[in-house]
From TrEMBL, chains A, B:
CDD domains: HTH_ARSR. Residues 36-130 form the HTH arsR-type domain. Keywords: DNA-binding, Transcription, Transcription regulation. This is Transcriptional regulator. The keyword Ligase does not apply. It comes from the Archaea. SUPFAM superfamilies: Winged helix' DNA-binding domain (SSF46785). It holds the Pfam family HTH_5. GO terms for molecular function: DNA binding; DNA-binding transcription factor activity. InterPro entries: ArsR-like_HTH (IPR011991), HTH_ArsR_DNA-bd_dom (IPR001845), Metal_resp_trans_reg (IPR051011), WH-like_DNA-bd_sf (IPR036388), WH_DNA-bd_sf (IPR036390). The keyword Transcription regulation applies.
Length: 130, 130
DNA sequence: TGAGTAGTTGAGCAACCATTCATATAATGG
DNA sequence: CCATTATATGAATGGTTGCTCAACTACTCA
């Protein structure tokens, strides 16, 4: 039983009838949807993956609430893992394009990017919804 | 060396001066940022985590491009993993609140939720940015 | 230049994840 | 009912991830 067999039955169920060309047509329009998958999907996915971790999620929400850049030493007391884990987290967030980094002497400041802000906004706008 | 020592030095660096109460004040305002972390952060994170997987990300983009509900048998030929993996993926997406499910006889139809649509929009709006 | 501080990096390990295969459920048509 | 079809589920397993500890770099100031 091939994929197109199943499709054929689906179309017959939906439309009452189905000939070869109907299947081909449907398959073609389905395949067109694949073009909607972005070329740099990997970048998107790594942003999502990075944000899905508790430590990193919390840091982004903190930076977002602060609405200013925060020094690493300001973040440390707010998150309950080792300084090293926070440093790893910030580095991952930076790699994923979710925070910017600024150096000032020995201090290092981080701030959310637009991408992080948009994702946070999307989550906030749809919480408890549907 | 405690956390507050470092904060004290930071504030001294920033403001030229720093007394005990400055540290306490800063710490208090920092701690207030924690309130911005949503109560159901876990739900958010599982949505992000679910969407970060290639198979599930692709399915959401396909559903989003289709702009209509798709039958499982329409999704199968578009994604290069086993039917079982797609079924798992759809089930995970459903659990994460990213797709709705509708039964019609033996066919099962899936469609994106608002939450998925908002996340996709956030990604689309910030791609290649900053 | 050397002691001290802020933050980063890498290895290692336990926990978690994504896929597949095999099997199960549920609906449909003889 | 029985066979068939569409999809779901569970266990197994190879791969990935996130934390901590220890070592490291980079900057400052005396």
């Amino acid at each position: 039983m091939s994929e197109t067999d199943r499709l054929e039955r689906l179309i017959a169920d939906e439309c009452g009838e189905c000939c070869e060309s109907d299947v081909a047509e449907r398959l073609e329009s389905l395949e067109a949807y694949r073009d909607a998958i972005p070329d740099d999907a990997g970048t998107d996915r790594s942003a999502l993956q990075t944000l899905s971790n508790e430590t990193r999620y919390d840091i982004v929400y903190l930076l977002s609430a602060a609405d200013r850049e925060l020094c690493v030493c300001e973040i440390n007391p707010l998150v309950d893992v080792s300084d090293s884990a926070i440093s790893h987290a910030l580095s991952d967030l930076h790699d994923a394009g979710l925070v910017t980094r600024r150096k000032d002497g020995t201090w290092r400041y981080y701030e959310t990017t637009d991408r992080a802000a948009e994702l946070v906004a999307a989550l906030d706008a749809t919480r408890g919804g549907e």
